[in-house]
Sequence to fold (348 residues):
Amino acid sequence: MIRNTDKRMSAQEAVAENVHDGDTFIVGNYTLGMPLGFIYEVARQKKKGLTLCSQSGHMSDEILMAAGCVERLVTAYVTNLGGDEGGSPVARAWKQGKLQIEDYTNYNYNARLAAGMHGFSFMQVFEGILHTDLFEKRSFMGENKYKVITCPFTGKDTVLVPALNPDVCVIHVQRADKFGNAQYWGAMGSVQAAALASKRIIVSCEEIVEHGVVQSSPHFTIIPAFRVDAVVEMPWGAHPSDVLGYYNIDKLASAIILGALQTEAGTKAWLDEWVYGCPDHSAYLKHYIGLFGPEFLDAIKARAFYSAPANYGSAFTTIWDEHNRERTMWATPEELEQFMKDKGVLYE
Fold:
């Protein structure tokens, strides 16, 4: 992508253009700030055959599974509401043989993303995994879930995991500019690695800010604009999970979802009301406020607690002075060009 292209679009457009049937689709956020507003849109568009990667294995996975979007799951955690006697969309599908799951530890899952982010084909992990069922039990990845090689330096067995490079990632962040520079603060988890390891990146954000805001606080930028394919402004886009600096977890809405997901009938009723019955995220919020009033959302809005500003100032912002002279050689561009020609180092 070109850095200074305006990439703002609706969630409907972002899903239609970037999430395709059969994709490997990764949810970047790890329990915090889950991009649930965007997940609902994927479900509305009835994407099929996804290989879903999600470290948290929380509501996002369950909802996409319930909507019939997922065939394979790579994760480090499954909610499994109700334990062995209960279930959830993921657990029910797995028990019925409708879902293939590849299970990793949190560390091994992130090692795959780290490899993908840095352009490696694999990453070494701790050899203790050799003595667990996670190493022995394999699903659709088969022998490619783990590999064991002889270390060329020590001669010891070395365990490797393959790089993970999903087709598309969605992350939810606090703010972004229209070009796609995404700014995030708080517990990082696998947010940045999941995005940078992916081929396409969709940024969902609480607000779109001017580029000058991004320039004034570059340390918050975790994804640069040139890597981003779409920017979706979605206030309350992680609801009912939390976004640091914006709102806390909505325990009422979470309880409704998690309770509904425990049975097939409850899951269908919840999807019909809150996903398929709401054409977009704005309609979802209006439905919530219509049922419970605005006070429930007002009660979980974050109280301001700002970090100290950082001084990014410098003596000057360009190597050219007010007379258009380069500050070390005190020459104009024309004089520098002539100097280089005279020295035979300028080729035209």
Q: What stands out?
A: The chain has three domains: 11-121+164-299, 125-162, 314-348. The longest strand covers residues 168-176.
